[in-house]
Design a protein that fits this description.
Helices cover about 60% and strands about 5% of the residues. With about 220 residues, it is mainly alpha-helical. Strands 1-2-3 form a three-stranded antiparallel beta sheet, with no helix packed on it. One of its GO terms (biological process) is endomembrane system organization.
Length: about 220
C-alpha cells in the first residue's frame, strides 16, 4: 500500500515539468507576438510623451482643451477651419515666445518671471521697479541657443498638432494614401530630430510653463 500510494503521488509530480515547459515555451512566443504587433503603437505613444515635455504646459493644455471645440471633433466647415488655423497660429506663437521667458529667485525667496532681452532679463512681476533684491540679470540675456529652442518648440508643436486626430480630420478629412503616409511619418521624424537637437543644445531657462529646478549650472 505504501509503494502504490507513493507511485500515485509521484505520477503528478513527474508530469508537471512537461506542462511547465510547454507553458514557458508558449509565453515567449506570445510575448514576441505582442511586441511585434504593438511596437509601432508603443513608439508612437512614447514619442508623443517626449514631445509634450518640450512644450510649455499651458500651451499644451490649451491645445488639448480647445482643439475639439474649435474643430467640432474633427468635422470642420470653412468657418471652423479658419478659426482652427488662427488657434494653432496663436499657440505656435505662444510656444515661440515662451522660449524667451525665464525665472529668477529673489532675496525674499520667491520666484519671479521675466522676458529675456539683449541686455538681460526684464522681470515683469517684481514689485520693486528698481530691481532691488534681484541677482545680476545681465547673465539672462538672449543667446543664439534661445532662438534655436524657439524654432524647435514651434516644430514640436506642429508635430504634436499633426498627431491629433481632430486637427488632422479638420484639414484632411479624406486624405489620400500618400498624404496619410506623410502625416504619419513627418511628425515622428520631426520629433526625433528635435529631440536630438534638444540634447545637443540643452535648455537652461526655466520659463513660464516649464518646470523650475535647481539653479546650478544654468549659465
Amino acid at each position: 500500500m505504501s509503494s502504490s500510494s507513493s507511485l500515485t503521488q509521484r505520477n503528478p509530480i513527474t508530469s508537471q515539468p512537461n506542462d511547465s515547459q510547454e507553458h514557458s515555451e508558449s509565453v515567449p512566443q506570445l510575448r514576441r507576438q505582442r511586441s511585434t504587433s504593438q511596437r509601432a503603437m508603443s513608439q508612437t505613444l512614447t514619442s508623443a510623451a517626449n514631445l509634450a515635455n518640450l512644450l510649455p504646459t499651458g500651451t499644451l493644455l490649451a491645445f488639448t482643451l480647445l482643439i475639439p471645440v474649435f474643430t467640432s471633433n474633427g468635422s470642420c466647415d470653412h468657418a471652423t477651419r479658419v478659426l482652427t488655423t488662427v488657434l494653432l497660429t496663436l499657440l505656435a506663437i505662444s510656444c515661440f515666445l515662451s522660449s524667451f521667458t525665464d525665472s529668477v529667485k529673489a532675496e525674499d525667496g520667491n520666484v519671479y518671471y521675466g522676458f529675456a532681452t539683449r541686455k538681460g532679463m526684464w522681470v515683469f512681476d517684481y514689485p520693486d521697479p528698481n530691481g532691488l533684491g534681484l541677482p545680476d540679470l545681465s547673465k539672462y540675456r538672449i543667446r543664439i541657443v534661445d532662438w534655436i529652442h524657439a524654432v524647435l518648440s514651434v516644430l514640436v508643436f506642429g508635430a504634436v498638432a499633426l498627431r491629433d486626430k481632430n486637427a488632422v480630420s479638420c484639414f484632411y478629412p479624406a486624405p489620400e494614401q500618400e498624404t496619410k503616409k506623410v502625416l504619419d511619418i513627418v511628425p515622428m521624424g520631426v520629433g526625433v530630430l528635435c529631440g536630438l537637437l534638444f540634447l545637443v543644445f540643452p535648455a537652461r531657462r526655466h520659463g513660464i510653463g516649464y518646470p523650475v529646478t535647481g539653479d546650478g549650472g544654468r549659465r
